[in-house]
Amino acid sequence: MRIVKLSQESRQNLLENLLKRSPGNYGQYQDTVQEIVDRVKTEGDKALFELTAKFDWDGISKENVKVTEEEVREAYDTIDPALTETIRKSLKNIRDYHEKQKQYSWFDTTPEGTMLGQKVTPLASAGVYVPGGKAVYPSSVLMNIVPAKIAGVDHVVMCTPCNKEGKVNPAVLVAAKEAGADEVYKVGGAQAIAAMAFGTESIPKVDKITGPGNIFVALAKKAVSGFVSIDSIAGPSEILVLADETANPRYVAADLLSQAEHDEMASAILVTTSMELAEKVSAEVDGFVAVLSRKEIIQKSLDNYGYILVADSLDDAIETVNMIASEHLEIVTKNPFEAMMKVRNAGAIFLGEYSSEPLGDYFAGPNHILPTNGTARFFSPVSVDDFVKKSSIIYYSREALEKVHKDIEYFAKAEQLTAHANSIAVRFEQKED
C-alpha cells in the first residue's frame, strides 16, 4: 500500500480522490437509471419483467416473480444447518440491540389545561433491498428487516436479484424467513427500487426503501426519494483504521482488506502516528493479497483508494478521521476509549484489537447499513428510527388559550398573517364585545 506523510495538501488530495466514489459523481449513469425508473413507473410489470429478463433471468413472469413457500423450504433443505443456526444467533443479537432503540409516544399535561406530546407511529410498509452480484448478503437481510419489524411495520417487502435459473440464494431466503419478511420478490437493480417506490401489478408500493446496492441502485433511490422515503444514498464500502505504535500490524492489515474485497471502488485507509507500523502493515497487506481469493478486486481497490497516512500526532490523526467521516472506523491505540471521545464523524466505531470490522457486519448486533462517502457527518446507521414517524400532539382548553391568545394574535399580525390572528380572535370575540 502507498504510504503518505500526512499534511494539509495530502489530506485535501485524499478527500478529493475519495469523493470521486460518491454516487453524486456518476452523472453518466443518471439518464439510464432515470429511464428505467420512468419505465417501471408508467409500464409497471411489463417494464419490470423486460428489464429483469435483460439483466438477470429471462423466464421472469407474474406467476413466478414472488418467492413461494416451497422455494423457502427448499432453501432450508439446501443450506448447511450450521449456517441456519449461525443466522439465528446473529438474529438474536441484532434484535436485542435494536429493541433498545424503540421510542414511545409521550404526553405532558399542566394544571392550566394544556397537553403537549409526541405520537410515535410505525410506517405501514417498508421495502428492503438486498444486493446480489459479487457476493451474497444474508447479513444485510437481517440488518434491513429486523429494525423494521421491531418498529412495528405491518408489511415488509424484500427485493433481491435472482440468478439465470430464477433462483434466489438459499442463505438469503433463509435469512428473510427468519427475520420475518412478508414477501420476497426475485428482482434487483434500479427496476426493483422503482417497483417498490411506485408499485406494479405484482409488487406493492411501500412507504420507505432501505438497503445497500450498486451505483444503479443508489441512483435509483436518489431518483425516487420524495415519492417514498429512503435511508440514504450509499456509496462503496470503506474502512478507516486509527492506530498507534501499539497496534498489531498483521491484525490491521487483515482488517483493511476485509473491506477492500467488497469491490474495486472500496476504500481502505490506515491513519497512524508510527512510520514503523505503516511499513509493517504495508508488508503484511502484500502477503495477504497474494493468497486471498478475491485478490484482483482487492488489488484494484488498494491501487485506487488504499492509503497509509502517517501523522505527526494523534490529534492530527483524529482530525483526519473526522474529515474523512468513514463508514467503519477501527481505533487500535493505547487508549481507544479516550480517542473515541474525540471522534465526531463515523458510521460505526470499533474499539481495540479484538473488535474487528466483520464483528459488526455479521454478529455483534448494531446495524451494518451505514453512511458512506463522508455522510457520517450528518447521517446515522439504519435503525428502528428509520421505520417510524412522529406526530406532534397539541391540546389547549379555552381557559389555557385565553391566557395567551393576545400574544398569538400579536405574533401573527407582526407577520402580516391576519387570517392566522383571526382564527384565534374569533374564539374570544364575545368577551371582547
TrEMBL record:
Cofactor binding annotation: Binds 1 zinc ion per subunit.
GO biological process, one term: L-histidine biosynthetic process
Cofactor(s) it depends on: Zn(2+)
UniProt-annotated catalytic positions: 327-328
Zinc keyword on record: yes
Enzyme Commission code: 1.1.1.23
Annotated Gene Ontology cellular component terms: cytosol
Residues that bind NAD(+): 129, 191, 214
Family designation: Belongs to the histidinol dehydrogenase family.
NCBIfam families recorded: hisD
Name the record gives this protein: Histidinol dehydrogenase
Organism: Hominiventricola filiformis
Taxonomic placement: Bacteria, Bacillati, Bacillota, Clostridia, Lachnospirales
Encoding gene, per UniProt annotation: hisD
